[in-house]
Each structure stands twice: as C-alpha cells, then as structure tokens.
Amino acid sequence: MPRPIAAYVHADAVRHNLDVIKQRASRAKVWAVVKANAYGHGIERIYPALATADGIALLDLDEAVRIRDLGWKKPILLLEGVFQPEDVETADALGLTVAVHCDDQLDLIAAAPRSRPIDIYLKMNSGMNRLGFAPDTFRAAWERANAAESVGEITLMNHFAAADESDIDWQMDRFEAATSGIPGPRSLSNSAAVLWHERAHRDWVRPGIILYGGSPSGLSRHIADVPLRASMSLVSEIIGTQALRAAETVGYGRTFEAGHDMRIGVVACGYADGYPRHAPTGTPIAVDGIPTRVVGRVSMDMLTVDLTPCPNAGIGSKVELWGDQVKIDDVAASAGTIGYELMCALARRVPVKAR
Ligand SMILES: *Cc1c(COP(=O)(O)O)cnc(C)c1O
Q1: Are 229 and 14 in contact (CB under 8 A)?
Q2: pLDDT tens string for the chain (355 positions)?
Q3: Does 130 carry a binding-site annotation?
C-alpha cells in the first residue's frame, strides 16, 4: 500500500474563484496566472477551470507550449518576456504576448522579421525595483517599440510592490505621470490590487494567488470577507500513536515536552512532502475533522500532532494538513512563510488527485 498522503486539486474551486475575480474586476479582462505549474497545482489539472479567462499568463515557454497543446486559442502572456533569440521564434510560433522590461529584450524582438507582429507588455519599474523601464526612460522605450515593425499592440504594464498594504498611490502616480498621453491598454493589478485597489483595475488584471484561494497578504483574515475557495488540500493519515507521560518529549531536538500525560498521533507527512519544516508547535492541523495542533519538530517523512482534542483518533484517522478546514495561509503564517510558497513547494512524491 502506498503511504496514505495525497494532495487534492479542486478545479471547481478555481472556476469559482475566477468568477469571484470577474465580479470584482468586472470592467477588466482577466489574465489567469498559472506560472510555476499553476502555483504547484499542475496546469493540466486546473486548465478546464480557466475557460472563461481572457488570457493565461505564465513564465516558462514549456508551459506556454503545454497550454497551446491543450487547445487554448486565446492570448498567452509571457510575464518575464524572452531571454534569447530562439525564444522569440517560439513566441512567434505560439502567438504569445511577451513582456518587455529592458532594451535588450526590445532588441531581440526588433531584430528579426516575424510572420506577424508580436504584441508586447511594456513594463515600467514604478518602484518595485526588479524589472522594468524607469519612469523617465519609459516614453522613449515606448516610441522605439512603437516604431518597430515586428511589434504589434503595446500594453503598458506595472507591478505593485505592496498592494496588500494600504497605499499604492505613490506607484500609481509615477505610472500615470510617465504614461500620460501614451495610447494603449493598461495592466497593473495582481491579486492584491484586484481585491483592494479598484482604481488600479484598468484594462487587464493579472490575479494569481486568489485563483487558488490564497491570501495575497499571506494572512487569511484579510480575505475572510471574500468568498474564495481553497483549490488545494493536503491530506494524510495517522500511522502511529504514542502515550506520553508528563515531561516526556517528542521528535528530533526534543523541542516539545508534554506538560501532562497526553496522546500524540504520528502523521505520514514531513518536509520531504513539502510541509514546512519551520512549522512550530501550535501550527493548526485537523484530525478526523477536529482542529488540533502540530507538536514537536517536523521531520522528513512524519510529523506529530496533539490528540487531546480527538480522543477517538487512532491509526487510520484522516488528517488535513491544509485545505477547506485548515487554511493554507494559517499554516504558512505559523511557519513564517506565505501560502504561495507552500503551494509551489508541494513535493513530487506526493500523489495528486482530482476532486
Ligand atoms: C506572479 C505575478 C502576478 C500574480 O501575482 P499574485 O500575487 O499571485 O496575484 C501578476 N503579475 C506578475 C508580473 C507576476 O509575476
């Protein structure tokens, strides 16, 4: 028998979340962001849920190939653009829209004649300071792109540094000032801006994490009023129990000491499955639907839970590591990270099932 661990991917939840996004940003078109293999879900698994998206956005060319192989005829956006001349050929062959964040990328696209002009997303660095043209060079970049025969439609693109915090105005103001009078559609908003900054919705929004039911801020309470559903659950079972006497410890490093006699359960899930090793004692988890806590250190293949709230639990009891009941954001926050990372880190050895 295989280990009892499994991840479930709920395409229906993605479909539902996409509807929520379309209601929220009702005047904008929606790029469904599926980079990193759909945030660890598997592109092919959630693809059927994306039918009403206006486009699909990703980073890797092989993911773009997979999406076209699945039969997607609508736009595909390459969020980091091209890296070498061959990429432009692939982008041309697949009919991709490509981000252009620097002169080198513009050179690549301008260099060779194309079967048809390539639509681009001209990216401004309005303060994130990763990729993009500085505001004072943006207009010149646009003029150059606009003059290039191999460039088709030019969309003006921005990425927010902190749209999960209250203030995006400083970045919006820079973007608006540097683009005033330049024609063309605008695309500014990630998930956080879709939820919290209507002013930034504009022509195309680019939600990722909320498609999968995660919180853009990393905190579940920030999306408590948004009817999103979790698209990934990680489940396993209890494979052993121990009766601890007061003052006994559990696991590596003896980090948890029983304050009184108690039962613990051993769960077939560890950091080699993608569960965060830094999840401390107290991290939420559910056994047979009853909320309880992780105790002691997470090891490679196992972790241990407090069975005090679930006296009837034993070998074979169902465990939810994250999903509908245990929010991935709460597990992540306890471990000092964000739901994005846990989704993306789901290990290959975990069998993934559809539900
Ligand atoms: C990943 C990414 C997004 C989606 O971000 P979320 O926070 O997951 O919504 C949007 N735009 C760009 C350029 C990205 O790289």
Answers
A1: no
A2: 689 999 999 999 999 999 999 999 999 999 999 999 999 999 999 999 999 999 999 999 999 999 999 999 999 999 999 999 999 999 999 999 999 999 999 999 998 767 889 999 999 999 899 999 999 999 999 999 999 999 999 999 999 988 887 789 889 999 999 999 999 999 999 999 999 999 999 999 999 999 999 999 999 999 999 999 999 999 999 999 999 999 999 999 999 999 999 999 999 999 999 999 999 999 999 999 999 999 999 999 999 999 999 999 999 999 999 999 999 999 999 999 999 999 999 999 999 998 7
A3: yes
Domain containing residue 34: 11-216
**Pick the catalytic residue: 35, 123, 271, 275?**
35
Q: Distance between CA 89 and CA 96 in Å, rounded?
A: 10
* 304 three-state secondary structure: strand
206 plus 277 within the same structural domain: no
Phi, psi of 137 (to 5 degrees): -110, 0
**Is ligand 1 within 6 A of the CB of residue 35?**
yes
Domain count, the chain: 2
Query: Mind spelling out the 3-state secondary structure of 194-235?
Result: HHHCHHHCCCEECCCHHHHCCCCCCCHHHHCCCCCCCCEEEE
The answer to whether 245 is a known ligand-binding residue is: no
Q: Would residue 212 show up in a list of annotated catalytic residues for this protein?
A: no
Pairing of strands 352-354, 6-9: parallel
Active site residue 35: yes
Nearest partner of 321 among 354, 278, 353, 273, judged by Cα: 273
User: Pairing relation of β-strands 118-124 and 151-158?
Assistant: parallel
Ligand 1 atom 15: the closest Cα is on which residue?
79
Same domain, 203 and 250: no
Instruction: Mark 274-307 as b/e (b = at least 16 C-beta within 10 Å).
Output: bbbeebbbebbbbbbeeebbbbbbbbebbbbbbb
Asked whether 195 and 278 are in contact (CB, 8 A), the reply is no
Among 174, 192, 216, give the residue marking a domain's end.
216
| Overall size of the chain counted in residues | 355
Q: Let me know: does 95 contact 118? Beta carbons within 8 Å.
A: no
Structure tokens at 111: 């260099």
